[in-house]
Amino acid sequence: MYDEVLLTIQGETATPVDRVSLPDLELQERAHLQEWLLANPEILGVGVEIITSEYDRWQTAAGDPVLDRLDLLAVAPDGHLIVAELKRGVAPHTIHMQAINYAAMVSRLTPQDIAELYAATLRRRGQEIDVESALTKLTTEFLLTSETIRRPRIALVASDFPPSVTASVVWLNEQQVDIWLIRFRPYQLAGGQLVVSFSRLFPVPDVEEFTIGRRAEVPLTAGDDPGAPWDEPSLRRLAEQGNPTTVALLDLCSADDPGGVGVKEIAAHAGVTLGAVRGQLAGLTMKLNNPNNGFAQNKWPARVEWLPGGVASYQMDPSLAAIWRVIRQRQPLPSDEDQD
User: Fold this and answer.
1) What is 7-204's CATH number, 2.60.120.10, 3.40.50.300, 3.40.1350.10, 2.60.120.260?
2) pLDDT tens digit string along 160-199?
3) Which InterPro entries does UniProt cross-reference here (predicted)?
4) Tens digit of pLDDT for each residue in 201-217?
5) Is 257 left (phi over 0), alpha (psi -120 to 50) or beta?
């Protein structure tokens, strides 16, 4: 397997840096490796935030304590929890089995449970927040639901993984278990400074991510049935209920001659990360699918055009854009004479 090479550069001279191990440097799993991830949760994915660490308050249905300690629990922008199991050296053969046990226990938590853990973590960092506010943030910004809690992602973090683990992880992934391998590589520079790289070893990117295909226009739907057409009342409801990314998407698409709107533009306009954009756009589909939200539409009021390289470009029908501008008080609705 191809491995990374770290070089120090002085002019035209490139010198390989020797790899070291955390045990050799007397660096610990909990005191060091775990703290690095707590300070840099993006190691576990774009837009990820930590819910809690070193969680050990488990019990059986009969009330008996379960002596297991979860290294890290995080949440991704799509609402799924991340169960992270850390090892400071080469992962043992049973690391995935241990993580599956934790994922099974985590899947039984409720949104209220997660909010209590999240609020406690934020308060330890000096942020004043109550459980209700934490729950609101989790369910709106991170799209946390009881359903997303049921299927947590597993992230195994180690300096390397034996074949028995990689083979098991590939098979689990084929069985629709969301499981990642994240490998770190420590290096010590000549001056004694420690450098550590983190990279996702598995899942590997799909080959489609490296190819260029035919440009096609595909409507964004929440199902085969498009539902009712969008009108002013339904768009007003969406303006009231939509998350920041949904509102930013429609604001940009309804601008005068917007052309195609990209994900980076949406993220900048909404003031969120790229990962949050993907999660919140998925939340729009979930909102339309939930009859309690009062929408008769199954199709977004915008459409996507996939450009070469798999780049998404969003557009909006001019008539819907005009209505949206009225709702957002940016421009009067065109009269019938203007439309003739």
Assistant:
1) 3.40.1350.10
2) 999 999 999 999 988 889 999 999 999 999 888 999 999 9
3) tRNA_endonuc-like_dom_sf (IPR011856)
4) 998 765 545 555 555 45
5) left
